[in-house]
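Entry for nicotinamide-adenine-dinucleotide complex. Fields follow.
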Amino acid sequence: MRMAIFGSGYVGLVTSVCFAELGHSVVAVDKDPEIVGRLADGVPTLYEPGLEELLGTNLRAGRLTFTTSAQPALESSEIAFLCVGTPALPDGSADLSQVDDVVASIAPGMHRYRLLVEKSTVPVDTATCIGRAMRQLTGPDAEFEVASNPEFLREGSAIQDFLHPDRVVIGADSERARALLLDLYRHAFTCPILVTSVKMAELIKHAANAFLSTKISFINMVADLCESVGGDISVVARGIGLDHRIGPQFLQAGLGFGGSCFGKDLKAFVRIAEEHGIDFDLLRDVERINAARVDRFVKKIERALWVIRNKTLGVLGVAFKANTDDVRDAPSLRLIPQLLQRGASLQIYDPRAATAFARLHPADDHVRYVASPYEAARGAHGLLILTDWEEFRTLDWDQLRAAMRSRVIIDGRNLFEPSEVREKDFEYFSLGRGDSGTATPPAPPRLDADETLPSRRR
Ligand code: NAD
């Protein structure tokens, strides 16, 4: 199939290289000439495992091109995916101006049937607005339809998620649109494909993100309770996650969710519910709990180090999650200013996201970007772990011990077993588990899922 993909950010770029990899002919359009120039030269504009290889292969094969020109891209395509940003406006509703800009840029070329497909996350009924805006620009004769095909990929495993999704959702209100989208997915994907109306597809995406963020805030509240009663959140998470109705995913207590999606999608979902007379207070609480995670972590740092002023802190990880260079809405963006305001000096290391973070917080007398976890630890009074990069799970304790001024680790991602870190002679503070100096309950016997004792049927 020949397709145009508007927006070459995290979703648009992954969508473009993956559809090209599946054999389609893809023209990727971004309004930013710098992004287009780099991608056309095979240089990735963002980090995502496997992206660079797929970009190079498909450029060389001639299945993928990049351009800033909407018209020629549309001319050669029967289907156009909208993958532009939908950030939050100050009132929480979704800013759909990038979507509207795409509509304006392609309207003059709508001479024959085109299917426009929302892949951006948009509030329910956006397709109707796109249709109306397009009709106003094209007049009554233009032949087009608007469908929805929400994207569920996770940054950090985006290529894998795109090519091997749990499900594909197709929202289409006509046989022709349904057939085009089914044709695209049916042969290449073995997962369930849910075909529904456009409105339902739009709702499914917002509801999915709202539910996942609710799970995270829920487990973080249980973690706080565990901490108060001297318990261990990882045991509780395991205990509830083994229930298939609940599942183990998204039950890791930590600094809360970040990234470009959950926060703004929650806000937009609450707003759209309000507009329809539904008070979604539950989701407001999810947001409030998430916002409080960073303040709670600052208190933990104070408990661990007492006075923060004039302390040197090593910071491991600023990306909102592992395997990405994305720092949008990352907890680090809220934490670092608080630490600087309290007079700390920071030595920051992130394997991929330091450059993006440094654009927002340039190096100065109190902020240094370093090239390894051990440089971050050098002379530090404490080491903070903010991102769950795999590299941090295998730190060399002897090197850390030699580098640090005092051996204190404050872990916002619960990467280690507390007893193991204490055996290495470090003070260890994590979330929802016994901290150094507080009573830790004896570790319960651990059983892996496949070791779980068989139940006896009566
Ligand atoms: P992004 O900000 O990384 O990328 C958007 C791109 O669109 C930018 O490169 C921008 O230059 C380009 N753009 C803006 N206006 C344009 C126009 N008129 N014509 C052509 N290009 C234009 O955004 P993203 O993270 O890729 O997210 C895109 C959408 O996908 C959002 O709605 C988001 O909620 C949704 N989504 C994101 C993720 C994720 O993990 N990032 C996952 C699923 C869904």
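NOTE: The radius of gyration is 24 Å.
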